[in-house]
Amino acid sequence: MVGIRVIFFNFVENLIPMDNLQKIIEKFDIQGTVSQVKPLGNGLINDTYVVRTAEVDAPDYVLQRINHHIFTDVETLQTNIQAVTEHIRKKLTEAGADDIDRKVLTFVGLRERSDKTYFYDEENDAYWRIMVFIPEAQTFEAVTPDSSRDAGRAFGRFQADLVDINKELKESIPDFHNMEFRLKQLNEAIENDAVGRVKEVQPELKEIFERAEEMVKAERLHREGKLPKRICHCDTKVNNMMFDKDGKVLCVIDLDTVMPSYIFSDYGDFLRTGASTAAEDDPDLSKVEFNMDIFRAFTEGYLESAGEFLLPIEVENLPYAAALFPYMQAVRFLADYINGDTYYKIKYPEHNLVRTRNQIKLLHSIEEHTPEMGEFIASKLGK
Predict the structure, then answer these.
(1) 217 assigned to some structural domain
(2) What is the CATH number of the domain that holds 287?
(3) C-alpha angle 24/44/137, rounded to 5°?
(4) Assign residue 341 a region: left if phi > 0, alpha if psi is -120 to 50, beta otherwise?
(5) Among 17, 85, 353, 361, which residue has the least CB neighbours within 10 Å?
(6) What is the mean pLDDT of the chain?
């Protein structure tokens, strides 16, 4: 039995009693004596804490409360993550890699059932998991050409490592990056016109619908058997990588959205935020441009590691992927605005409309750069 003498820090905001957290930690098969628990990071979805142990030879841990209002199928979520981390660990072992425990996440099983990596706390209607803390590691927030190249290389390698995974994964968030589904949601919002806003957004709707046929190309190609689904990360931000003290990538983290998708999800999603010259809610559209230096760096890194498995149809549609994600986000922001702002948090009444216009402006910039993007991709592949 693990001995626990915990120093608790301000948990009031999360409404989890101190003694309940102690009971939760005891459910997991951790090593050592817990000496300290305190909040870690500033995540917007899950609540995260670092768990320090007293013994020098025992690892520290990360305790997370999973937001099951967003991830409604926790069993699928954790099954996906377990399959992916086990597969990557196996590959690292077979390749004779060193320091494996810092190059792939390790989730801790329950004390009474080691194959299960989450615990449901009935008293508080909360799901919990524990993973081993990676020591001497750091994340970066800045998006620079160097960090973008690292990100492209890391996320491309992540996809490449999972091409031959022999376990079937499911969507942890159904239709997460399904463009047809997002347009269906927009059409439903227009039909309902819950707060009478449809009339004022006709210019934005025109921009959306004149591109709709092109933007559902991925789903169409998949139905035709031309475009496969891969195992993708689906949340490719620069701060979802861990680096060692020398700035070298250790591993990809934040695996909640790992699921089957088109490779466009990882490629296009990074560029939507990483290559935009302004925040997604900046009302000054003159500031919103597509940064080609970030595009070139990320693409170079991505093709370096993912190029070994990508099909020609995937490569030729990378510029489409770059356009797809600001388009998809514009659709989602606009649908929420029409619905009366029921999904995204807003700071003022027109916030979602400002976001929509921002993403449409970014889309325009990407479209202007599309020929140049295609030429660059071809040059990297020696064509």
Answers:
(1) yes
(2) 3.90.1200.10
(3) 75
(4) left
(5) 17
(6) 92
